[in-house]
Amino acid sequence: MKARVKWVENALFMAESGSGHTVVMDGPPESGGRNLGVRPMEMLLLGMGGCAAFDVVHILRKGRHDVRDCEVQLEAERAESDPKVFTRIHAHFVVKGKGLDDAVVNRAIRLSAEKYCSASIMLGKTAQITHDYEIVEVE
Fold first, then answer.
1. Distance of alpha carbon 7 from alpha carbon 10, whole angstroms
2. How far does the signal peptide extend, from start to end residue (predicted)?
């Protein structure tokens, strides 16, 4: 996997993934930024959420469960002094579908957290990561 990050000006950077997608990263005005993009640490948190949601949907679909939507709401705390690593992350999953079993959704989230989601397993080296979920029945 490759990536490239190029400084544009002040605290503005353009990041390009190996697959050719571009993301703008910027800092707040107090750091010389113009608030034009996400912060690098926000990107890490978003990456963890994307990785976990992808896993949960994939596991449920592979098991032929009728999943219709999956959202992960993340909250994180960081250390007060440098390096300001994540110290606590909570992921709340909202899984929507038809006839989804509680045990099946719980298992999918656990498998993601403990086995498949490289991002959360890596961030778990510095942060206490917790999960909960709700299942919303749809027609």
1. 8
2. none
Q: What pTM does this model have?
A: 0.92
Residues 23, 2: Cα–Cα separation, whole Å: 14
Indicate the number of domains in the chain.
2
Query: Which residues face 102 on adjacent strands?
Result: none
- Rounded to whole angstroms, the Cα distance separating 3 from 43 reads 14
Question: Domain residues for 3?
Answer: 1-38
Same-domain status, 26 and 65: no
Cis before 29? omega within 30:
no
pLDDT tens profile 68-81: 999 999 999 999 99
With a cut of 50, which residues of the chain have pLDDT below it? none
